[in-house]
Write a structure and sequence with these properties.
- With about 375 residues, this protein is α/β, with parallel strands linked by helices.
- Strands 2-1-3-4-5 form a 5-stranded parallel sheet, with helices on one face. Strands 8-9-10 form a 3-stranded parallel sheet, sandwiched between helices. A two-stranded parallel ribbon has the order 6-7.
- Helix 10 crosses helix 12.
- The longest helix is centred in the last third of the chain and has 29 residues.
- The protein starts with 12 loop residues before the first helix and ends in a 10-residue tail after the last helix.
């Protein structure tokens, strides 16, 4: 749902489109350079050797156990045959028959990849999977994780062509999801989702990153009218889990400004805690958003300049929906957008690619 405005005079639009053409030429050159660089012979030769490894795994792999890194995946409901591990603490390689699932946030030890690479090369009978949350803006890391993995799963649609030159066994994208709270935690605190008194003031604190000037600009403009929508430091992640959860449950609406142009995790955090996300218009037909229109509001550039109308519409939408819609938003998110469901999706793709036989277990 979007707010409709009367169209003002468009006298300046021709000049701006002409100026935008100059920007598009610069972007076109950068894209052409990226495409050319990604077709280097060394990447071709590397992928051929990787495909030999993949074929060997497909022919010889006998499944034993699934390992998941213990930070990003801490909210996964472990089933028999699954185990958490910490890359920093683990000394030995993974045994043959292991499926090892990493997030890009959990691969560095002392800010380098040496231990990850050592694990990968020392575990030729294990399948290494990387679910990459930052392939839209951290290509230097994403490319190396694609190169040193057997099954690469980007979260975003950005940079897929050059990344496919580093690993052509790629799934997805598989979007982000709720990773803060396990399903059991959500069940244990369901009364807070339903019963917490909520304020009309939107929640909208975003960590400031200098490499995303569009985002920072939009948040500074929003902050002029909405003091609670603002740029902050990274202290959120050090706060107590219950404290963070209560904060999400205490707001009716959430202004969400992605770093670039994809559906961020906080969309699903807002839904699972019963709130109404207000997100960019450009995401309206995103694969993870297009079925959620009755639960989400969409803003354009004009709404950023004048956000009160849309905010008030969100509050009205929340009030009219009441407890029934809180429950509905929560159920949709927990059934579809929780990390448990994302991991299940990844395992199904992995099972199809390597013919492991997971479909005969309770793991997918």
């Amino acid at each position: 749902m979007s707010v409709i405005y009367n169209m003002p005079p468009q006298n300046d639009l021709p000049r701006l489109i002409q100026a935008a053409n100059g920007v598009s030429n610069n972007i076109s050159q950068a894209i052409a350079h990226t495409s050319g660089a990604s077709q280097a012979d060394v990447l071709y030769d590397m992928c051929r050797l990787k495909n030999q490894r993949n074929r060997h795994l497909r022919e010889t792999f006998k499944f034993k156990k699934i390992y998941l890194t213990d930070h990003i995946f801490h909210a996964v409901d472990l089933k028999p045959g699954m185990e958490f591990f910490n890359i920093k603490d683990r000394a030995e390689p993974f045994e043959d028959g292991s499926i090892v699932i990493f997030s890009n946030n959990n691969v560095m030890v002392d800010n380098n990849l040496s231990k990850y690479f050592s694990m990968y090369f020392a575990s030729p009978g294990a399948i290494f999977v990387v679910w990459d949350f930052d392939n839209h803006h951290w290509f230097a890391l994403s490319s190396m994780l694609a190169a040193a993995s057997d099954f690469y799963v980007p979260t975003h649609s950005d940079n897929l062509e050059p990344l496919s030159r580093y690993n052509n066994v790629m799934m997805g994208p598989v979007g982000s999801g709720v990773i803060q709270w396990s399903k059991q935690y959500l069940r244990d605190h369901y009364d807070l989702i339903i019963g917490t008194e909520r304020v009309d003031e939107p929640l909208g604190t975003h960590i400031e990153y200098p490499q995303f000037p569009y985002r920072n600009k939009n948040l500074k403009i929003l902050n002029r009218t909405l003091p609670s929508v603002k740029l902050v430091d990274g202290s959120y992640h050090s706060r107590d889990m219950l404290d963070r959860f209560k904060e999400w449950c205490s707001h009716k609406v959430h202004w969400i400004v992605p770093v670039l142009n994809d559906a961020p995790i906080r969309v699903f955090d807002a839904l699972i805690t019963g709130g109404i996300p207000i997100i960019p218009r450009s995401l309206k037909y995103h694969r993870d958003i297009q079925h959620l229109h009755e639960h989400i509001l969409f803003y354009d550039y004009e709404d950023i300049q004048n956000p009160l109308t849309l905010t008030q519409l969100g509050v009205k939408m929340f009030n009219e929906g009441g407890e029934e819609r809180i429950k509905r938003r929560h159920q949709i998110a927990i059934d579809t957008y929780h990390v448990d469901e994302r991991v299940r999706t990844i395992l199904k793709g992995l099972d199809d690619e390597f013919r492991i036989g997971l479909s005969s277990t309770n793991l997918v």
